[in-house]
Please model this.
Amino acid sequence: MSLYACALHVRNAEPEGEWCLADAAPPVPRPVPSNRPSRDFTRTRDELARLLGPLLVAPDAVESAAEVHRRLAAMDPPVRHRTLRPLVAGLPVENEERGRALARVLVRTGTGYQAVCTGLVLLAGLGEPEDVPYLRTLGLLRTLVRPVVHALDAIDRPAAAVLALRDHNGAPELRPLLAALDSGDRAAIRERVVALPGDVSPEVARRVAEASRLAELLPVVHELPAPKGAALVAQAGRLLFRMTTLHDYQPEILSYPDGPRAYGELARGAGLLPPTPDHQALLLSAVQELRTGPAMLHDWGPGRREAALSELTAVLNRPAWQTLPDRESDDPGVRRRLAWIRRTRAYVLRSPHAPSARLRIEIHDRDPADRATVEARILVDGRPLVPEYFGRGPANAPEELLDTGLLRATDEPREVQLAEAYCTEGCCGALYVTVRRDGDQVVWGGWRCPVPPGGKREMPEIRFEAAAYDAEIARAEGDDSWAWPARRAARLTVAGLRGRPDLLTRWNVRLGWTGTAFSDPEVTVISLLYDAEDGTARQILWRVPEDGTSPEDRAAAALDRLTREDPRTYGR
Model:
């Protein structure tokens, strides 16, 4: 029985019952046992090219599909979908009509997991709307959900999103929305989108926006009663905010093709929002992303991003939006968020300096409601460099890139780490560039960066006019308007230690990293390293809590303490 026939049985037996997403299909190939050699990527690519190349142009799709089945079944160890996808997608298809015919036969009559997945990968590049019903039926089999979603993403993203949401571990908060999507009632869909919790995962946020066609829901907000229109605008802002989170390898916003349209509709509806702290945070976060974030990498078209920014900042600059509660909250989280709003308003709403400059560095401090590392975002010709050329983690912190002076250009070339993968460099790498001065120019070249499997990453040499480069680095190094008191105390302490290295060397201690505690940003943390008597490397985390004094006083007190006490006794 073909896998498609299994899926039809599932659909016809109990279309709304326990059979849905059942495992009524052969299992996914098991991981290779540890005592067997794993597949070599290049060898597998060449093997698949020899197997599929002639069959993609063969006149008889049925005979070709049978041969694909036979050869794929004979491959030992078997090839998993996550390996098949990049390999098959990279094969040249000289005759699209015959390639599409082969893909359809594999998808509709295939009895083996690898053969059906091969057909799904081919349809991702060759599929048409008539293939969607077959793919949605195949998606009833749990073992095929992810391959089907990948294929549908290229043909019908809303259908792919619905399937992906159904497969999201049966999350109960998604069930009412899925029921509304099944009904096709746009009013019900709108209400269910608004009712979703605001802390859904980044992937769920994107899939909700795709499945509900969020960018098409938003234009009607001005026709709705004011509270309902404002609620939809606010929820759209939350979904976009979740898509830009830094807690994953690549921001989901880059996988959301309707991002520019959704941001544009958010900006047009922003004036419906009451000027609450939550709404201030949403609009400020949107401005941050449209000025310096990965969302800039979408194909916006002439003037659309600038128009959205203009509408958002116009709302934020209204008199009613420029005031915040005067009474300090008893909740430290609320206090931190209000302080972030005040600080971020001043930082992002000021007139942008030299917007046409070749190089621009802006510090990004995310809304404390979704805390993340502070990053020094680097824009070259108005485009964020790290997500464009790396995409596996945020740019490094300003303490690493700016306070150290590493980006300053000298005649002696210097290699600088601009970003590191979320999982650490040892796992998925880091982005490095060599900075050097060449006459009246500064050159960024000699890039080091992980290469995508089966592909090449060409990193361009970038040249800057030296005087403008030096001025931008000096401006960024001297601007601490983004920093809150505990972070400023950390920076001042480190500056003092660099001016007086004897404060650490006298205790045989060296500086590690500095910043603030992730769980409590009001606590300054200084990492100190030393070698124990047994030769092992040790780290002390020196915590300096908020004590009501100024950052300058706290830094001075910390430096003074180092003159009197061994820092190895301070922390843990």
Summary: Strands lie at 359-364, 375-380, 383-384, 414-420, 430-438, 441-448, 462-465, 510-516, 524-531, 537-544. Confidence is low (pLDDT under 50) at residues 17-22.
